[in-house]
## 1
Amino acid sequence: MIRVVLPPHLRIMARVDGEVALEVEGAATLRSVLDALEAAYPVLRGTIRDQATQRRRPFLRFFACQQDLSHQPPDDRQPEAVAEGVEPLVIVAAIAGG
């Protein structure tokens, strides 16, 4: 199981509290984790990544094991601790304004 921590606005949309546990087919990559997340919670489609380009939405970042994974290729494997469910993949929403 892969553990994912969503930012508050996405937890509200998905109607979940705390972490989400996902079963991921094959290798645990960012793409496979997001595919599993969107399959389990269809309301999140298009909120984390653009559905046409598959690129991360602006103002969202991905962190795991004290590393910023936001700019890694989507098919790179997640850290072993994430793949084993020891550490969560954390999706963080940035705040901007003036």
## 2
Amino acid sequence: MSTDVQKRIHEQVTTHPVVLYMKGSPQFPQCGFSANAVGILNALGIKEVFAVDVLQDPEIRQGIKEYANWPTIPQLYIKGQFVGGSDIMTEMYQSGELKQLLGV
């Protein structure tokens, strides 16, 4: 994988407070896991999400898996830190940990 893709991903996750790599868009998620991730962020009242549709960019789709060493999408980043995918987001939402991490 090219270092250009890794640089682009690094720039995205470090310049936006909340970044979600997903299939589709927040308005039209293209898989259940991405829909779940968007639903959790919506439930927490997070309006400013930098969403990246990995279906539109195969390099990003593969690159993000290598960037986080995480094989699945969606992937959530908060303040440059990898949080996890849909299952981890669900657990953290239910425990209140995600709300605290987001500062809401």
## 3
Amino acid sequence: MNSRKDTPIERIWNGIYVENPVFCLILGMCPTLATTTSATNAIGMGLSTTAILVMSNLMISLMKKIIPGRMRIPSYIVIIASFVTIVELLMEGFTPAVYAALGIYIPLIVVNCIIMGRAEAYAGKHGPIESVFDGLGMGIGFTLALLLIGSVREIVGAGTCFGIKVTPAAYVPVNLFILAPGAFLVMAFFVAIMNKLKIGAARRTGWDPTEGGCGGCGTECMNCAKLGMCAGKGSEANAEGNGTDEVKEKDV
């Protein structure tokens, strides 16, 4: 990996925007859709997940050389489950209202694909400092996503934000938004905004990412070209720059 992307700022920005786990990678949908009925619940789930992400990434990174390859996944689950238990007990003792509101979704953090995915894709292959900031970035991105969804759903669906009345007395709450369909509607709205921002940024680099069947992956088209998934001129430029066999045959 490029060393530039291993800096703390790059890791945090990666989790917040570049690879936001909710709006870009579409991971952790169970807690995202179920616990965002209010901004308070969203903050509680986001912060608890962030703490577990940082601690599990650090521990897995420190132990990566002593964990046998065939025992990798079970070891990760045990490490993550241990930190989930610690966080669950702390929430029960210090924030009982949030603990009661989140309920079963706190222990279910053990199987949250965001945490397992970062352990497998990053923490198990990088040093502890980089892994901590990677977990922190992903956790902040997850928390911000939950907070945005939860705030919109609470304001539109109940007329409050963090339990405080923020709408005029004449406003009639749209109860749909605090139900399951409302979660999907708000989620789709923010995913559309994120896609628009990313495609717009890719176009400003000098070429249209949707041209020629490209999926809009922007600067990552080199990876698409290797998989034969991208037919845009960005992939051709990358292929030519890397001297691939296909370009050489075409030149011949």
